[in-house]
């Protein structure tokens, strides 16, 4: 039994360390086959977005000179009257409160737990399963018993997690 477990552990470790799963970091700065001298950046033409026109018809498009839109005159905070300032401050307060409320809703414990955290039963199942496997690999009369019990507990938590899904 001990030989089978050791063989299984060696096969598992060997399969995970194969060249397919190892990282390969290129020591080159440029892609293969290209040299830095050969890469030439073409100048980018600056196009005015107001002159871009799209159409589904076949007829030619005539570009007319567009008149710049009238600039909107805005008052600075110093130029506002007292009542305008008060209205602006209250509007800013309500906007900040609504933004903070949205952020708190996004960061609530239930949403964080549902997206980022591991379920407690699944976490306990992996911990007990890992302890059981390590105890079975170590071997010996006591460790076989501890490993078996830990594996059973891990399976119970795993089944409990699956039932809830």
Q: How would you sum up this structure, described in words?
A:
Among the domains are: about 80-110; about 120-165. The chain is mostly helical. About 55% of the residues lie in helices and about 0% in strands. The model has no long low-confidence stretch (mean pLDDT about 75). The two termini are about 35 Å apart. It contains five helices and no strands. It has helices at about 1-15, 80-105, 110-115, 120-140, 140-165. Helix 4 (about 120-140) packs antiparallel against helix 5.
Q: Give the rounded overall mean pLDDT.
A: 76
Radius of gyration, taken over Cα atoms and rounded to an integer in Å? 33 Å
Strand count, sense and closure of the main sheet? none
Proportion of beta-strand residues: under 5%
Query: What gap, in angstroms, lies between the N and C termini?
Result: 35 Å
The helix/strand class is mainly alpha
The amount of helix comes to 40-55%
- List low-pLDDT spans: none
SS element count, helices: 5
Number of strands: 0
The outline comes out as elongated
Q: Order of helices and strands, N to C?
A: HHHHH
Compact description:
This protein is mainly alpha-helical and 165 residues long. Helices cover 55% and strands 0% of the residues.
